Amino acid sequence: MGKEHLFDWTGAMWCSMIALVVYSATCLPVSAGDKVSPPRTEASTLTIHVPIPIPAFADLYGGIHGDFASHGNADREWVPLGGGTGFLKYRIWPGEQGFKTIGGRLYSQATFAFGVEYAKRLDGSLKKIAECGQRDQTAATGRLFVHLAITFAQNRGYSILPASTVVAIEPTGSCLLSEQSGDAAPLMAQVYRNELQRILPPVDRKAAGLVTLKPAVARIWEELEEPMLLDEAQALWLVVNPESIGSAGVSTLSDAPSAGFMVTARPAVVRGPKPASRHLPLPAPQDRFQDGGFHVAFALQVPMEEANQRLREAVVGQEWSLAVGRIKIVGATLYPLSNQLGVELTLRGLFPLTLRLKGTPVYDETTERIVFRDVDYTIKERTPATDLAEEWLHETLREELARRLVVPIREELELMRKAIEIGLNRDLTGGRLRGTVQQLSLKELAVQTDSLAATFKTHGALRYEAHADRRAP
Question: In this structure, how many other beta carbons lie within 10 angstroms of the beta carbon of residue 233?
Fold first, then answer.
């Protein structure tokens, strides 16, 4: 038998065998009743994003100017200016106000009318010497534009901690003082900035008690403890198994500030009836966590009987020509050889021949190919002709098989990766699950007594985006 023809068939046989394992793997994940133990679960991380209820904070911070407007000049103290010889009292009227969120911050912008009284200390007492816009709102020609920014942080109690700052206070309308004929708007802008900087810290402390996200996060935690059906036809389930949680900062999600939480879990993929749900209470958020991405190792298997059937469908009937005649494959059988895989070939043609091949399949992750170690073969029938061929052909052919038995499976892995990614993107009761699988690799291909078993590992990212109403009221 010529070594080129033997190699052509051998390569096709191994390719067919591995292809049937990879293609079958998506529908034959290991379940609790299988003899092959599922792989050990590894720590993964996924993020939860919970929208921050902006209206509660907008009402509080929006009321600041209204509180100032509710007090007339008579209720205020004189505010000293400069070295203390000049003093100012002011009055404001409610105006236009709006809020918007950018980059995880809440911005408040307000424009309102104001009026002032101006006094000086003369002979030991204050004497009012000028005013503008004091009688009513229509007479208040002075205008101020006030811009505030509110940032958000998190604490260990699932509360939101706002912190406000003055971005800008700008006069947009003059307020000309009687007698003095001077514009009081620049002075008013400085006085009002000082007033806001005094009042904002206690407002921030009050705002810190407005909202807790713990009820919302607890409901999401319970949902993550429920097994997720990835494939109904194959009864394929993702069990997240959340274990701990940590605060991950505030970001922008759908143009609104969103509190992030990083969940550490030990996910697994299983097949069969729905696994039992866990009921662990929501833990306190940790100060530190390591974001290692979301990855799952899962085992899949093909029964040896089914593998044999698919192998026979792929190779039986193939034939080729040798210099001495034609050879045809009439039978093929897989069998385990400890941690190796063997195949017995029955050939017919010029004379009957049974060829036994064996090798250890190993996955090369860097090239996404399956290579074979310890490749060898034997010829079952021992005749003078076969003994002569073996004497000069065996070692050369064995080395050739070991070098060339390479099976690319990049396309098959990509198909599986896309199928898993589709299963990870879905609507849940309280939000939307969004997953990406950057990499899917075959970690191990093992030969069992009655099956071929493969272990795959995914690596990517998974996040849960809660609906806007999935938050504390």
Answer: 6
